[in-house]
Every structure is written in structure tokens, then in C-alpha cells.
Structure prediction request, 174 residues.
Amino acid sequence: MKKEECFYLGKIVKKYSFKGEVLIKLDTDEPEVYENLESVFVALGNNLVPFFIEEASLHKSDLLRIKFEDVTSEADADALLKSELYLPLEFLPKLSGKQFYFHEVIGFTLIDVNYGIVGYIEGVNDTTAQSLFEVKQGEKEVLIPMNDEFIIEVNRAEKFIKVATPEGLIALYL
Prediction:
């Protein structure tokens, strides 16, 4: 399994018991969805290694407490600390309407109701306070805020997102 075929689930942040249990900080708004997993992929070096889960439960609402098979001591758990966890993309719950996963809209056409076709979504920048669509138009890059009020339609069948940006925003880049 390659990282490109997976999504980031979370990170092992600390040990929980002397029996090898660990706590995972999940990257989700709905941690309860991942309470009954059978296995996960743990990033060890450049590889994703499957780990089977004996037991899992929510711990203090946003952490997942996991007991992996064959992880039976504090030393075993220590070796996994700060490792990232991944799941195959097909485990993601399906979204509909104007909701979308960042990875799923890469390559979509971005259309502004006033401007027309802006370009192709090349990436998403979520390192800023406001996530941004990184849109490629020829040699230029246009950054469009991912504001719920701007997004009018997400069309998965025809692979486009229609937005209504403030007047002049796109012109700033072109």
C-alpha cells in the first residue's frame, strides 16, 4: 500500500499502559467513526506497515486508545511513538453536496460565476488560517479562499467547482 492510496488518520502521541497500549490523536471531527477498525497502516520509515487491532476505544473524546496485536510492552509502544497512521481511501465516508475532501478535488475545473473558467485546481493550501484552492491558469497561480459562502456547487460527475468570488479577486492574479 502506498501513501498516495491512503489518507492520514492521525498520530500516535503517547503510551497508555505498560501493556503496550497507545493513544492516537485523530485528524477528524468524528472520532467515533474509527472506533471499530480491524487494522491500520503505521508509517515506519518510508513504509506503511499493517497493524492489527485487538481493542480500541475513545479516550477523552478526541483520542483513540488502541491495543495492537503483537505490541505487548512499553518498549514496543515506545518504538511506535510519533508514528503516523493511515487508512485506504475507500474507508473515507462518502460526502455529498458542497462538502468534499481536499484530495478529491485536485484536477477539478474551478469556475467563477462572473469570471468564467479560472483554471484547474492543482492543490489545496491548508497551512494558512483560511484554506485556499491553488488554481493553475497557464503559467499563473490563482489562490481562491475555500469559503463556504463562495462555493456554489461541487459537481463530482463533471469534475468542477463553481464559486462566486468577490469582485476583483481573480483580476488581482491575472
